[in-house]
Amino acid sequence: MSRGTWNSDHGPLRGFYRDRENSWIFGVCSGLADRFNLNLGAVRIIVFICLLIFTWLTVAVYIAATLLIREKPLVYSGRDDEYEFWRRQQRDRWRHS
Asked: pTM of the prediction?
């Protein structure tokens, strides 16, 4: 499992998400590649071929996927000690308010 699909607070991300960080348009292809552990370039080529052959169906499915699938939550991917420092700062800020 890649670090991008791991949430340090809740464990691995489950489900299907649109990945806007690695996307060209809305992140549907990158989310699909991440979920099923596929090569992103291969998924984009398959979608492009489907777009040439089944234009309206592919556009409709892509727009529906964009509207129905949640965006992938941001996950901190730096050093663990830095993450804990900022996590403590956030917790202490709310305690002093």
From this structure: 0.61
